[in-house]
Amino acid sequence: MLDARKILADLQHQAELAMQDLQSSGAIDKAKKTANDVRERLKTDPKTRTVAAGAGGLLILGMLGSRGGRRIIGDIAQTGAVAALGALAYKTWMERHGKPATGDNLVKEAGASGFPIDPATDPEFALAVVRAMLASAYADGVLDAHEQEVVDSALSKSDLSASERAMLTNEVPQEETLRLISAAAKTPHHAAELYAAAVVSAGELSDRETAFLTMLADRLGLNADETRAIRDGALG
Fold it and tell me: Which residue would you say has higher pLDDT here, 167 or 213?
């Protein structure tokens, strides 16, 4: 069984590395340089490929493609992806209900309010976060042909089942992916956090990415006002 916690730990490590080049301003030229550095690690560094063929690096590539993704990389480097996404979804949720969230510890407040922050306590949700981020990042083809070859080569040497490899290479049918993601949304807070995970990984929204996010929102039971608030919160 694919251990989402290892992928999320790898994502946090990749975020820490990315923050060495990408500062809080999220300048596009820095983002491009950081993306090139991530691609180089995927191609040349065996350590990058030890955790599910560098899935954390793939997720960072997707996040570097959007302002919202770049803004949250620093938070992921500090607290981990699930906690950072929980804080983002919590802040958006509160603001939408007229209660600005400006506390010094949004992660703690998010956890107390029912937003998942610890992948160890809910492995199913952690895996759904990974699925949402990967599916969104792949929606517009985050990998070029050579990068895909590198990933395929790493996967062939990894101890993963066929279904696990299919998930990491986005070969699972979209309807099945949506079903698996939405199944982990036990509460509206879960749903908001999963949608936020997809938004920050989507890159600049193309027609394909917009269509995926629309379908995901529908499966998660989020209405247009809720999804707009989450997108605005991620991009603000």
Answer: 213
